[in-house]
Structures are given as structure tokens and as C-alpha cells.
């Protein structure tokens, strides 16, 4: 058998060097793992902050309009919502759809237009309030407009359509707490298709239309008190 000589070189690689070469530094991996959750939480925080900011801006825009009507709303109100004048016909149905459609006819007879002559008198947002049923009607409601023009301009438009309204309504006026209130009661020939009463009044920068005497008095009380 032939002998195989194996030579071991000494001094070229010490045991300590071998140990150093075998060392694995795990700190970099740990730091990387720590950085990933931090970045994830930072991203979530920024996203949440932006959502809160957007929600706050939208909410403030909505409530700034709603707050202007808040003091008008009696505590016993059942429903309170803001509606756009352009959507008024659809959003208030079925409570006053027939009345608003008929009102458009009165405007046309007076050579006026609701969109061009009536809506510019008021701010774009109006309030719709449904009150509890009373002895006058099962669905007492109110539509409140915030005036964009002086009261004299509102009176000018009303003076043009009132002669047409008097063809179907008996007019009367009363003062409740020094506020002039106009009442319209349909004459017998049209009373079957219309509510028994409409009332409107101007007070403190607002124009209020109701279908109940008790309701309009409640709104006058809420504004004055």
C-alpha cells in the first residue's frame, strides 16, 4: 500500500481566525425587522391623519350650513334636513310636492320663474322640518329659506304672485308676536286636492313656509326665544 503524505501548514489560519470567519452578525436583520414595522405604523398614521382631516373639512362644511338653521328648530321636531333648492321638488315629496308644483304654475301665470326669480332671493341651502301631527294636519312641515336679498325684494316678488294665488285661496294676515304672518286657505273648488292651510312669514333673515298655523307659530317662538 502506498503511503500518502498529508502536510498541514501551520501559522496560516489560526483557530481564532476560523471562529471569526464563522461569525454571523444578526443585528442587521434585527434592525431591518424593526424598521419595517416602524415604516408600516408611520404610513398608517399618515393615512389616518389624512382621513380625519378630510372628514373634518367635509363635516365643518356641512355643519356650518346646518348650524345657521339649528336655532330655528323646535325641540319637538321629528325630521330636520338640509336640501338644495335645485332638488327641492324631489326631496320634499310627498309632503309638499303638489304644493310646489302648483306654485310653479302661479309663477308662470305672473310671468315669473321659480328658478330665475324666486331661488336667487335665498341661499342655496334650505331646511326641511317635519313636525309631529297636530289637529290641523297629519304631516305638518316647514321649509325655511335663508334670505339672500332684502325683505323688500321678497315682498316685491310676493306682490306679483299673490293676485294669482287669490284665485284659489282666501288670504288673511295676522300678527303673532309682532311678526306678520300670511295665511292661505284654499277655496272650496280646489280644497280637495290641497292642504287646508298654508302660512308664510319673514323673520330675522328667514322666509318660512308651513302648512299649519301651530307650526309657524312654533318656529316664530323658537326664533324669538
Structure described in brief:
The protein contains seven helices and seven strands. With 225 residues, it is of the alpha+beta class.
Helices and strands in order, then pairings?
Layout: H1 15-22, H2 27-70, E1 79-84, H3 88-91, H4 97-109, H5 114-118, E2 122-130, E3 141-147, H6 151-165, E4 169-176, E5 179-186, E6 198-203, E7 206-210, H7 213-224
Antiparallel strand pairs: 1-2, 2-3, 3-7, 4-5, 5-6, 6-7
What does this structure look like?
This protein has 225 residues and is of the alpha+beta class. Residues 52-64 have low confidence and may be disordered. It has two domains: 16-70; 73-224, no CATH class. It has a seven-stranded antiparallel sheet, covered by helices on one side. It has helices at 15-22, 27-70, 88-91, 97-109, 114-118, 151-165, 213-224; strands at 79-84, 122-130, 141-147, 169-176, 179-186, 198-203, 206-210.
Amino acid at each position: 500500500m502506498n503511503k500518502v503524505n498529508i502536510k498541514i501548514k501551520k501559522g496560516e489560519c489560526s483557530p481564532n481566525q476560523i471562529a471569526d470567519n464563522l461569525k454571523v452578525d444578526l443585528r442587521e436583520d434585527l434592525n431591518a425587522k424593526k424598521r419595517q414595522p416602524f415604516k408600516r405604523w408611520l404610513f398608517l398614521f399618515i393615512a389616518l391623519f389624512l382621513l380625519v382631516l378630510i372628514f373634518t373639512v367635509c363635516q365643518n362644511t356641512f355643519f356650518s350650513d346646518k348650524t345657521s338653521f339649528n336655532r330655528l328648530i323646535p325641540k319637538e321636531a321629528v325630521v330636520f334636513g338640509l336640501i338644495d333648492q335645485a332638488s327641492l321638488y324631489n326631496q320634499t315629496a310627498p309632503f309638499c310636492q303638489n304644493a310646489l308644483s302648483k306654485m310653479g304654475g302661479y309663477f308662470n301665470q305672473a310671468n315669473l320663474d321659480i328658478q330665475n326669480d324666486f331661488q336667487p332671493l335665498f341661499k342655496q341651502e334650505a331646511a326641511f322640518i317635519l313636525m309631529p301631527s297636530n289637529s290641523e294636519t297629519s304631516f305638518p312641515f316647514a321649509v325655511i329659506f335663508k334670505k339672500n336679498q332684502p325683505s323688500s325684494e321678497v315682498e316685491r316678488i310676493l306682490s306679483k304672485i299673490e293676485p294669482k294665488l287669490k284665485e284659489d285661496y282666501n288670504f288673511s294676515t295676522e300678527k303673532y308676536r309682532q311678526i306678520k304672518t300670511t295665511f292661505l286657505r284654499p277655496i272650496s273648488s280646489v280644497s280637495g286636492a290641497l292642504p287646508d292651510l298654508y302660512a308664510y312669514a319673514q323673520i330675522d333673515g328667514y322666509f318660512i313656509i308651513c302648512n299649519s298655523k301651530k307650526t309657524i307659530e312654533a318656529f316664530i317662538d323658537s326664533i324669538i326665544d
